[in-house]
Every structure is written in structure tokens, then in C-alpha cells.
Amino acid sequence: RARTDHDARVLASMADIVANAIRRATLNDQTERQLRRLSTLRAIDRVISSSFDVRLTLGVLLEYALTELGVDAVSVLAHRPQTYVLEHVASRGFGTRAIEQTRLRFGQSFAGRVALERQIVHISDLMAHANGFIIKEVAAEGYTEYYGVPLIAKGNVVGVMEIFNCAPLPRDPEWREFCETLAGQAAIAIDNAHLFGDLQRSNLELIAAYDATI
Fold this sequence. Notes:
By secondary structure, the chain is of the alpha+beta class. It has helices at 5-50, 54-69, 109-117, 126-129, 136-139, 173-213; strands at 73-79, 85-92, 103-105, 121-123, 145-153, 156-165.
């Protein structure tokens, strides 16, 4: 039958109701996601403040990164003090232990470029750009996207967080912002470990000097 003005008003009202329902559901999802991520950051803060074991701290952080970022694999490379070398410290999600062999100079490979330029590097077609830039066994796991984030603490590059994924990574600013927040937490954990190591060395040197003086 032909539509009447009444039909049009009813349809418009129904459309408004559906639109409002979708908006409420979307806002609810966003709120739950934000609360979950705040809870994640609190949990990571507690681990950082209670332990100087950087591998333990980063292990916990990377477990959360896998879940909250929705990625397949993630690793952290640490910059060894007084060198320009990045070495594997922790990783999660990989099918082999090949990533643990990673040892790169600044400027070398994707991670080295991240550390040298102090900027995020995003590779959307990983295999087309690999050419020896990633370990052969890692490349064989089928990752298509790469995301490298510099870990900067007190103005210094202390490492790189690398994300590998078998599907396109999210493009929304919220995902990227949370990724950078996790990277900031990782940088704090590594910097704390360095400070603790320096303090231990200073104490040992003081004890040795005191004994020598006696």
C-alpha cells in the first residue's frame, strides 16, 4: 500500500530509537574499554613499583598488551647502557623462541630505525619490506604488519617495543594512544632497572673502597 505521512513519522521515530540504542551501546562499550585499560595500567604500576626484575615486569606488561591491544605478538628490546645496541628482554605470543636472538645496532632493521629516529615505525606490508630486516623464523610465522614504538625515559631511548600482527592493525587514535601509554610504562620499568643496577654497583664500589681504606 502507499505510505502515508503517519507511516513516515512512525518510521522516523523508530529510526531515532534504534540510533539512540546503538549510541548508548557504543558509549557503554567505550566506557568499559576505558575502565579495563585504566585497571590494566594500575596493575602494571603495581608490578613496576614492587619489583626491580625487569623481565618479570615486562612479562606482565606484554601479557596485558596482547589482550588489550588485540595483537598476535609483542616484544621489548632494551638499549644496553653505554652502547648503541638493542637486545631482546621479553616477548609474548611468538610461536618460536627465535625473537630472543635479536641483537641490533641503532639504525639497523626496523627496531634500530625506531631507536635512531625516536619515532614510531609502522610497516603495513611486512613481508614486502623484510629482506633480512627480521629474523627468518619470525617472518615465517606469517605476520603482515609491524609497529615499533620507541621507549623514552628522561629524554633517553631505553628500548623499543615491537608489535607483530597477522591482520591489519587498528587505525583509530585511541588504540595508538593506549599503545604509546604501554610503551611509556615499559620505558619506566627499564629505566628503574637501570637505576637500581647503577645503585647496586655504586654500593659495591663504596664497600670495596672502604675495605681498601681499612
